[in-house]
Amino acid sequence: MNSYTLLFDFDGTIADSLDTIITTFDRIADRFSFAKSTEDDKVILRHEGIRVLVKKKHIPFFILPFILRAIKKELQRHIGDIPLIPGIKDALLTIKSSGYALGIVTSNERENVSAFLRLHGLDIFDFIECEMNIFGKGRMLKNVIRRKKLYKSRTLYIGDEIRDVQAAREAGIPIIAVSWGFSAKDLLLKSHPDFLCTHPSSLPSLIRQICKS
Q: How many C-beta atoms lie closer than 10 Å to residue 19's C-beta?
């Protein structure tokens, strides 16, 4: 077993769920009295971030947990429709074969994540940690590190959003930011991640390089 533990974000990093989440967002828009999404909203999300999008759509922050809960219930109904990020399955299987401990840290539901992984033949993770959290992912990472008794110097986080970069920094662990998810490359670079990966096929070699240094 390799001595490193790799913590993966789920939505946008492994699951190509952006379009499904936006569709679900629209489905519950009337219930929460906010405007349905537009193509501009998707651009704003990828290039400016979720905080900017929420502000521009005038969504009160206090209802975000309720929206998130509703989205997760909708996702559970449509989990079979969500595709894998192209190329991520081969990358993950290669990484697993190198002996790393693999974990998922997500605000999605455990049942959603487990069902998705089984559906796509990726039941290879040592643990799945889920918490209802919108902007407090740093605390989530800290909790996982404490509960799993992980060494920060031997833990690496892989995520696709600027909030993932911020969370890793708060938790005191390095991050590989991946540009195929919710946040575009230009936005990720502005947040100064430790490492940047632009395609899943490059991920195994980048991880090997990092873990050898």
A: 12
Q: Please list the alpha-helical segments (H only) found in the chain.
A: 18-27, 29-32, 39-48, 50-56, 64-77, 88-97, 110-119, 137-147, 162-171, 185-190, 203-212
Per residue in 66-120, pLDDT (tens digit) is 877 787 787 788 888 899 999 999 999 999 999 999 999 998 889 989 999 999 9
Give the span between the Cα atoms of 196 and 176, in whole angstroms.
5
Structure-token match 């905080």, residue found: 51
Query: Domain limits of the chain?
Result: 5-16+83-212, 18-81
Whole-angstrom distance, CA of residue 149 vs CA of residue 171: 14
Determine the Cα–Cα distance for residues 98 and 143; give it in Å rounded to an integer.
Answer: 26
pLDDT tens digits, one per residue of 156-188: 999 999 989 999 999 999 999 999 998 889 989
What is the greatest pairwise CA distance in the chain? 51
Report the range of poorest mean pLDDT among 12-26, 144-158, 187-201.
12-26
Strand, coil or helix: what is 131? Answer: coil
> How would CATH label the architecture of 5-16+83-212?
3-Layer(aba) Sandwich (3.40)
At 8, which helix (H) or strand (E)? strand 5-8
